[in-house]
Amino acid sequence: MTRTAWGEAGRHALLIILLLAMLAPLLWLLLTAFKPYEELFRSPPTIWPDAPTLRNFSEGWAIGGGKGIVDSLIVSTLSTAICLVLGFPAAYALARRFPPHGQLSFTILSLRMLPPIVPVIGFYLLYQKLSLFDTYAGLILVYTFMNLPLVVWLLAEFMRQIPRSFEEAARVDGASWFQLFRDVLLPLSLPGVATAGILAMIFAWNEFLFALVLTGDDVITLPKALASFFLFQQPNWGQLGAIGIVAFGPLLLLSYYMQKLLIRSFTITQR
Asked: Is the pLDDT higher at 237 or at 200?
């Protein structure tokens, strides 16, 4: 083999090793979800379940995983929708009124980089006074605060690629501002909207610190529910595996089917 061929083979081998390292925990989680309890502690351990079962899914749902999934779905979906509704016009103003690499764009993006531990105590004290502690509204509000800067920045970078001539033509035809947004800007910005929405959804779905500090027993998101399995009871790894599969599966499939939009959007924002 030539030196070039050896180098190519080495790169492929490295990629395969990295891929296996990333997929191995997910595969083990999937297999564990279908193992009965007694098989989880068998020595030597089994790789494939000898007697696959769906019992872990029903039991995991009943002991708190179901409420965690429902509550996470509520707060992540509504906060993402609010971020997109507020972020779209704000991103348009940022894209058309301010330079692409100006101080305002950097300031907006830097708000997303703020460590969650910094504002969480302030939110806690404020929520106690406003009766927002342990409510859906309170958690939706804080997730909106957390993800809105990223949504605005992503959409603004995408809108800067839309020629102004499209807007001018629509205005010449007598389009109102609402029609301009609905018929021109929104269709052309759909890849950016999809990217911003997916990222905001994932960040809200996976967030743990705000949910831990700002909620009690009424609102229990999935990360908080999973943590409680370790803190207050002997963990059943089969149930945890089942809940984990249900938790990350939909977002993984959504990202897979929209990967072309994601790649296109990230390419545009890096120009």
From this structure: 200
